Amino acid sequence: MAVEQINWYLRENCNANPRCDYCFETVASKCQREASFSETDLRIAEVLADSGVRKVTLTGGEPLLSVDVVKVSERLHSSGIRVSLHTNGLLLSDEKLDQLAGVVDVIGLSIDSVNPNIQASLRSQEFVDKVSSRISDLTEDIRVRGMGVEYHTVFNWLNAGNMRMTYRRLKNNDFSQWKIYEQNFDLGEYTDGTDGGTIRYGGTDGLQANFLLTEDKFRVYGDKRVSFLSQDDRRKYFFLGQGGEIMFRRSHFLESLPIGNILVDNFEDISTRWDEFNNGDPDKSDIEQFWQRQEYLPFFKRYYWGFVSKDEMVEIDGRSCPRIERLADLYGRHESE
């Protein structure tokens, strides 16, 4: 099976200052404002143009820091590839939008909250001034130029209680999708107050519980444009690095697996290798990571999958049972959807 969609980290550096708390980049020095031209970008675009790929998502870092982003998009688009560009929006001037029009099909915008204080805490006051406070106008500026709009939100403790307010502000905008991603760091751990504050796992009030409860509250809207993406959802990503490196990841919590380099290896060989990872059985490392993770999962998830011991069941406070049952049901519904 041919690879149809690729996520290309066009630039690893970013212009966000300060860096977002949930940024994937761990090297602070890479968060900078400098743009650069790279012949490598154009070489990669040429390979992709001849590869049979149907969609390329340009992301980062901040892809608009690449001064050749328009040339790259133009080359991809001219070969029939659907081009999506995910940006924090800070560099989306009218001039830049005019340049992207006709060569980019969809622009994905980051939006954490319509509450300016929450948004400034998660990103910066600059982001509030240039993006979130004018998200409706920015959406319209993109749409009138013939490009689609998507929203991307990272669900975390600061904005969890503000999601429905954000939806009420966004719902009348002309967007195609709003993807709400569960932040990766909180696994339901809590301090039980004993032995000086022993860390325990599986609380029914952890972030994952709030994520599922918020998703359930959104069902009343019946808005198919909105989707909640759990950290455990198994998606088959094809990641392309800035230097042409190809990585595969079965899910958010499993490590990336190197497949090859698009500038060195034959693309058909890479595609075949990706397909083997994509449809093959988990290897020993995957299985080990899976079982190591079980003790850190919230109790309701382990309860749903049947990974709960008799000793644990005996220790459960009966007053927690209805909430555990409900969260397990919501988790099962999320998995089925």
Elements, N to C (H/E): EHEHEHEHHHEHEEEHEEEEHHHHH
Which range best describes the helical content: under 10%, 10-25%, 25-40%, 40-55%, 55-70% or over 70%?
25-40%
| CATH uppermost class | Alpha Beta
Helix count, DSSP H or I runs of 4 or more residues: 13
Query: Main β-sheet: number of strands, strand sense, barrel status?
Result: 10 strands, mixed
Q: Tell me the count of domains.
A: 1
Secondary-structure-derived class: alpha/beta
The CATH architecture comes to: Alpha-Beta Barrel
The total count of strands amounts to 12
Distance between the termini: 24 Å
Identify the overall geometry: globular
Mean pLDDT: 82
Task: Give the full name of the CATH homologous superfamily.
Answer: Aldolase class I
Strand line-up in the sheet with most strands: 9-6-5-4-3-2-1-10-11-12
Question: How much strand?
Answer: 15-25%
CATH domain topology: TIM Barrel
SSE blueprint and pairings:
Layout: E1 5-11, H1 39-49, E2 55-60, H2 69-78, E3 82-87, H3 94-100, E4 106-110, H4 116-122, H5 125-130, H6 135-143, E5 148-155, H7 163-170, E6 177-182, E7 190-191, E8 199-200, H8 207-218, E9 226-229, E10 237-240, E11 245-249, E12 257-261, H9 267-279, H10 284-294, H11 299-305, H12 310-315, H13 321-336
Helix pairs in contact: 1-2, 8-13, 11-13
TL;DR?
Helices cover 36% and strands 18% of the residues. The chain is an alpha/beta fold and 337 residues long.
Q: Could you please describe the fold and organization of this structure?
A:
By secondary structure, this protein is of the alpha/beta class. Strands 9-6-5-4-3-2-1-10-11-12 form a 10-stranded mixed sheet. The chain has a two-stranded antiparallel ribbon with strand order 7-8. 33% of the residues are buried. It is globular and about 65 Å long. Helix 11 crosses helix 13 (321-336). The protein contains 13 helices and 12 strands. Helix 7 links the parallel strand 5 and strand 6. The two termini are 24 Å apart. Helices cover 36% and strands 18% of the residues. The protein has a single domain, classed as Alpha-Beta Barrel (TIM Barrel), CATH 3.20.20.
